[in-house]
């Protein structure tokens, strides 16, 4: 972080994706408590494993270091269009609280990894049109389908870590607005230097760069960041 002059990160847990989601969340929460000046957390919830999901959600919401919820339908074996009663209850509570949902289409920019169909995201937003959604993992083929969602839903933001298409940042800034782009590092699976460089060298104004790197996140998360 210091090498790339990153002041603060929002952490997620790989353990929470591939193993025990509750323990994974506790690990990153402990890190954030030890370094509250550097880290915040977006917890992962698996609606098809575990119990007392709504109770856990309320516990997370009371933690001032937790900023939102991460969902990984592909890795947790459910679909956003038919995720069951627990998922629906969680999403209803999250939308009501205006808490952000981090939803990556892919775990990292690697063509060998599965990709969440953007049609499932569209179905989710049709059911919860006021949900604040941070859409990640978008690259070449997904961008043309993501843009209509961004136009139709002003509470949807695009995280930049997988967006490698030449001119894509400029296209989103021109079509939707730079205020809807959020800087993402892809750490620890991607090199943050690449993610910084593509924004630093994009054909954007200094004001737009400042928005993407920090100001949009500060506005979205408010005083909690």
What is the strand content?
A: 5-15%
Main β-sheet, in a few words?
7 strands, parallel
Quote the distance from N terminus to C terminus.
Answer: 16 Å
CATH topology: TIM Barrel
Pfam families: Amidohydro_2
GO molecular function: carboxy-lyase activity; hydrolase activity
Keywords: Lyase
InterPro entries: ACMSD (IPR032465), Amidohydro-rel (IPR006680), Metal_Hydrolase (IPR032466)
Task: Describe what this molecule looks like in 3D.
The mean pLDDT is 95. The protein has a seven-stranded parallel β-sheet. The chain contains ten helices and seven strands. The chain has 225 residues and is an alpha/beta fold. It has one domain: TIM Barrel (Alpha-Beta Barrel). Helices cover 45% and strands 12% of the residues. Residues 25-222 form the Amidohydrolase-related domain. GO terms for molecular function: carboxy-lyase activity; hydrolase activity.
């Amino acid at each position: 972080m210091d090498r790339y002059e990153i002041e603060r990160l929002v952490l997620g847990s790989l353990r929470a994706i591939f193993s025990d989601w509750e323990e994974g969340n506790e690990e990153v929460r402990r890190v954030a408590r030890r370094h509250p000046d550097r880290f915040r957390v977006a917890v992962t919830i698996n609606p098809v494993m575990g119990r007392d999901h709504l109770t856990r959600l309320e516990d997370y919401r009371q933690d001032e270091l937790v900023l939102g919820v991460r969902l990984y339908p592909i890795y947790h074996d459910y679909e956003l269009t038919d995720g069951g009663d627990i998922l629906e209850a969680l999403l209803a509570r999250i939308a009501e609280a205006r808490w952000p949902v981090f939803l990556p289409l892919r775990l990292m920019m690697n063509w060998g990894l599965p990709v969440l169909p953007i049609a499932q995201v569209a179905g989710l937003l049709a059911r919860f049109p006021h949900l604040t959604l941070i859409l990640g993992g978008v690259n070449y083929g997904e961008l043309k389908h993501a843009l209509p969602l961004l136009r139709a839903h002003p509470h949807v933001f695009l995280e930049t870590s997988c967006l490698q298409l030449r001119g894509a940042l400029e296209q989103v800034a021109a079509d939707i607005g730079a205020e809807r782009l959020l800087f993402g590092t892809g750490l620890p699976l991607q090199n943050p230097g690449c993610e910084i460089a593509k924004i630093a060298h994009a054909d954007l104004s200094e004001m737009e760069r400042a928005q993407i790197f920090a100001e949009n996140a500060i506005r979205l998360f408010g005083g909690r960041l």
